[in-house]
Amino acid sequence: MILIGVDPHKSSHTAVAVDIAGHQVAQRRFVVNAGTFRQLMRWCEQWPDRRFAVEGAGGLGRSLAQQLAAAGGNVVDVPSTLSARARLLATGGDRKTDAKDALHVAQVALFRHDLRPVVPEDQTTILRLLTERRDDLVHERTRVLNRLHAVLRDLLPGGAPTGLSADKAAALMKGVRPVTATDNCRRDIARDLLADLRRLDRQVKGNESEMREAVAATRTTLTTLPGLGTVLAAKVLGHIGDVGRFPTEHHFASYTGSAPLDASSGNNVRHRLNTGGNRALNSVLHTIAVCQIRDGGRGQDSSARSVRGRPLRRPAGPSSDACPTWSTGS
Q: What mean pLDDT, rounded, does the chain reach?
């Protein structure tokens, strides 16, 4: 069997073939154009029994990895962090070329059997695209709304109230009577911002409608869980894809960054907050937990057990001996 590692870039892809012992057999650089995939497959025909390893199959290597998967190829995704570690451990140290990067990608895939296989894009990819587009629209709407609020602050006595919306801003602007040329300019800018705000509101609603249809097409039951609406369900499905790629719930917790990191040393056993993992999914889990703690659900029961199970401790300080008050550990 031959394993072909690919180091993808915007303008070129470098492929290196290695045997089962990890020794380089051949290499070739392909210029990225309409015929790149066809040229790669023609070059690989000399090895009928082959596998592919693409670095960053969710980033720069997405297009090539998807073409290989659609053609029935056996493709795995090699994270750039793993190939970088392999490069550091190589004889050449930290020397970096495209060919060496492709070689290390192939060697990582050869000896690591837990890499994520690349599958053809499906409905979950559509959901991820829609949720990312919604995040962009919401961020842009927030920026426009803040700017409109700042302009109205200078146009209206006392400024605009909080909780501003397009309809409220339009009602406030009806009473604006500019006196100076500067105020006339502010009013014109406010009108442009109001038009932008209405456009973004329409786009957000349209995006959520598409998202609702896409979630319904998956026939998922996630939306029946407390605290999990259409948007959050779309994010979960879009980022996870096939949940079967996680062997256990512990692997899933590690992937989302919700599992604490072991920072023990010697007899000192401790854990610290995990700031890594998929932060988008981490945010979704936090929102679900907050909603269930507030409105009821498994999250509320789990939180109650966690609070009851916390050990009691004395407050630190010189007055702790004189003060009999006890508090729960935070």
A: 87
> What does the CA dihedral 226, 232, 237, 239 come to, rounded to 10 degrees?
-130
Task: Report if residue 260 sits inside a domain.
Answer: no
- The answer to the question of residue 308 being in a domain is no
Do 89 and 129 lie in one domain? The reply is no
Give the domain CATH number at 100.
3.30.420.40
**pLDDT digits over 172-187, tens only?**
998 888 889 999 999 9
Residues 6+ apart with CB under 8 A from 82: 108, 112
Boundary residue ending a domain (219, 236, 256): 219
Of 219, 244, 270, the last residue of a domain is 219
Residue range 62-75, pLDDT digits in tens: 999 999 999 988 99
For 258-269, the pLDDT digits (tens) are: 888 888 888 888
Examine residue 267 and state whether it is found in any structural domain, yes or no: no
Determine the Cα–Cα distance for residues 32 and 30; give it in Å rounded to an integer: 6
Q: Can you give the pTM of this predicted structure?
A: 0.77
The CA-based diameter of the chain, rounded to the nearest angstrom, is 82
Q: Is residue 228 part of a domain?
A: no
The answer to whether the beta carbons of residues 239 and 281 sit under 8 Å apart is yes
pLDDT tens for each residue of 117-137:
998 888 999 999 999 999 999
* Domain carrying residue 184: 123-219
**Burial of residue 208, with CB atoms counted within 10 A of its CB: 0-12 exposed, 13-18 middle, 19 or more buried:** middle
SS3 sequence of 10-74 = CCEEEEEEECCCCCEEEEEEEECCCCHHHHHHHHHCCCCCEEEEEECCCCCCHHHHHHHHHCCCC
- Domain match, 140 and 164 both: yes
pLDDT at 293 over 90: no
